[in-house]
Amino acid sequence: MIAREGTTIVAAAAVIAFVLVVLGLRLEIGWGQPLLVAVGIGILAFTLFFFRDPERTPPEEGRAGRALLAPADGRIVEIAEEREPIYLDGPARRISIFLSPLNVHVNRIPTNGVVEHAAYKPGDYLVAWHPKASDRNERSEIGIRHPSGVQILFKQIAGAVARRIVYHVNEGDTVRAGERFGIVKFGSRMDVLVPPDVALDVDEGASVRAGRTILGRLPAPGTFDEGRAAEPASVAK
Predict the structure, then answer these.
(1) Calpha distance 205→187 (Å, rounded)
(2) Which residues constitute the domain of residue 133?
C-alpha cells in the first residue's frame, strides 16, 4: 500500500522512470544505455519504497487506551526531562524518535483521545538530531487529551532533508490509537512529550514501530493526578 500523501510523487517518479527506460532501450549510447535503465528503475523503486504504508494492528493495550504507542517508526535517540510550555504547560518527559530515509514515514496517533491543540510552525532545517531541532525547525504540534485527563503532545519535525510536513487532524477531532494522521517526507524526527508521571517502557537506542511499539503506560480514565504530574521524576534508563 502507498501512502496517499505520496501518490503525486510516485506518479511523477513513474513518468521519469518510463522516459529513462525508453531512452535507454532505444538510444544507441553504449554503456549509457543500461545506466539509464538502471537509474529509471532505481528512482521508481526508491520512491515506492519510501512511500510504503504497511497495515498495522495496534496491540490490545493501545486499542483500549491503556498504552502510549509510538507515533513513528525509527530509533529513540533521546529521553529527557524539560519544561513544556505549549500544551502541557509544565514539566514533561520527552521521547525523541529519529526517522532515517529507510524507515516507514507514515505517522500514527499514539493514543485514544481528543485533539485539543493542532498547529503548524515554520522554521529552520537543522539536522533532525540537533538538540535545537525540536524548537527551531519546521514542525507540527499536536496535543491530545487522553480519556484519563493526561495531556500528550507530539511533534512532526522536519530535518535537513525533509521539507514537507503533512498532517490531517484538527482541534476537536476524536482520534484512536494507531490511526494514520500524516507524514514527513524524507528523513525527520518525532518528539513525544508526556507528564513525568507516565511510566515509560522504552530506553534510548530502542527501535520502534508506529502504531505497534508501546512507549509507556497510561492511567485509567479518572485516575490521573495532575498534582503528582507536576513533580519531577527521573528518566527511565
Answers:
(1) 17
(2) 60-229
Nearest C-alpha neighbor of 59 from the set 123, 92, 108: 108
Same domain (yes/no): 18, 99? no
Coil vs helix vs strand at 9: helix
Q: From the candidates 96, 140, 188, 207, which is the catalytic residue?
A: 188
CB-CB contact of 46 with 6 (8 Å):
no
Please state, in angstroms and rounded to a whole number, the distance separating the CA atoms of residues 215 and 191. Answer: 12
Over residues 26-50, the pLDDT tens digits come to: 776 666 678 888 888 898 988 888 7
Q: Read off the amino acid at residue 219.
A: P
pLDDT given at position 230: 41
| Neighbouring residues of 117: CB distance < 8 A, sequence distance ≥ 6 | 86, 87, 141, 142, 143, 153, 171
100 is catalytic: no
Half-sphere exposure of 126 (CA within 13 A, CB side): 11
Question: Looking at the domain assignment, is residue 16 inside a domain?
Answer: yes
Q: How far apart are CA 178 and CA 112, in angstroms?
A: 9
Does residue 79 share a domain with residue 9?
A: no
Q: How many domains does the chain have?
A: 2
CA dihedral 136, 137, 139, 145 (to 10 degrees): -40
The model scores a pTM over 0.90: no
Whether residues 143 and 170 share a domain: the answer is yes
Q: Give the three-state DSSP class for 81.
A: strand
Residues 45, 76, single domain; the answer is no
